[in-house]
Amino acid sequence: MRTLRAIRHSAIGVSLLAFVATAGALTVQATLANAVTTTRYVATTGHDTTDCTDKTNPCLTIQYAVDQANAGDTVSIATGVYDEAVLIRESLTLIGAGSTGSGKTTINGHTDGSAPSITVDGFDTSETPNVAISNVNVSGNPSNVGILVTDATATITDSVISHNFDSGVVLDTQSRPFARTAAATPVVPSATISNSHITDNGSTDASADGVAVNAGTVAVDHSTIARNSDGGVIVYDGSATIDTTTLDANTGAAVVVLYSTTGVSVTNSTLSHTVPFSDGQGTAFGAGLIAFPGASASVDNSTFSGNTGQGVFSVLGTVSVANSTISGTKPAAPGDETPSGGVVAFNAPPTVVNVGRRAFGTGHTASAAQDSPKAPVAPGVTLTGTISAKNTSVHDCNGSVVDLGYNLAGDASCHFSAAGSRNSGVAKLGGLADNGGPTLTQEPAKGSDAIDAIPSGKAGCVADALDQRGVSRPQGGKCDVGAVEVDQPAVVIRPA
């Protein structure tokens, strides 16, 4: 395993098997401690000779302004490209001029390619840094990650983190037994990512996640995580909450959760078009979500569409899926030993399972015994009020899928038997499209067995329930199966 020093001074080699430690809390406090603050200004036309407080006479580099700042200050960065790697060790607000277009503020780490473009580091500090980062474009780091958060708290909003050599956002800690120095008090890193785009990170020489949680907790909302070279959100050790987010065309998997210390919650999100590894360094799956041995994940009001190999994939993990839609899953590459299907519960793996592009710097093959959790688990996938249908040349279910009622399958492979569930039904799902709301969805057409199939009080059909788009349930006399509640506007006859 790599220490944080290795993360800072070399590229991060990440995979679907790495780093084990303890999980932390899910709370991120974004408000800076000091009520009275000073704004420090930075521009490409400035000079590093002042305290940066005069907007008409700004400083030249972000790092200089950060070093001049006191806890609670704001560093305001004008439009331009800043060829530097920024280290922040106290609570600050970092604001750019914008993250897109000609007026954006770009930080690329070029002056020190061995370091992340932005590092928020609280190791061995008197107080845990709480840093807010907004309206910046963190792109083009030549050999490292975009943003690294260690033993600190970061809030990232309205930003773009893209085209970095390694991962977009990484959470890690130096408070480990194998760290270079032991911290007096362990700090669990945390981050909130909102209204941001984390895309196209990684290269042919580096496997890169969109968001990598090596330790700590992350909350992602109203964001896009797409086309990253080794997964969308990968939780090696800790937890993640993903809400109202699109994870599209990532390689390997959209979301991965490992081991009994890790957990993931996915709500109101779309996980789509995940593609398999193409370089022979990892298994050829491209699942929407994968839970490895002992790990847990919950999914609600979400859409899995057009993924390769599996939509939802449990490898001796525990996954619950409610009021969601799984469709368009394509078969894995020929010769791949992992089973394909819309929903796959892989509870009796072969002796050896190749589960990632890289681990510890090379390809990694792990035995089932080696990766077994320390505590007993009840692995498998449970479905409630969920559609698995219109998968492409693969079964809708494969393995120990538990039916908790009011599910709909397009074939007989799910063996549903609980109340309200239907095998070999007619889903009549439309393609992935803008059906209203912040994410793309698949809407059942008129005549679908999903419409008005869930009575009040069952399978999420309760007061104030909403679908993935934010539409109220029910629209008719009963709720619909899946992530979308079909609009049924009231008929008004006038005169009465």
Strand order of the largest sheet: 1-2-5-8-11-14-17-20-23-26-29-34-37
Give the CA-based shape: elongated
Number of strands: 38
Rounded to the nearest angstrom, the radius of gyration is 23 Å
Identify low-pLDDT runs: 1-34, 177-183, 349-377
Structural class: mainly beta
> What's the story with the biggest beta sheet?
13 strands, parallel
- Span from first to last CA? 73 Å
The proportion of residues forming helix, as a percent range, comes to under 10%
Taken as a percent bin, the fraction of beta residues is: 25-35%
Architecture overview:
- The chain is elongated.
- It has two helices and 38 strands.
- The strands form four sheets. A 13-stranded parallel sheet has the order 1-2-5-8-11-14-17-20-23-26-29-34-37, covered by helices on one side.
- By secondary structure, the chain is mainly β.
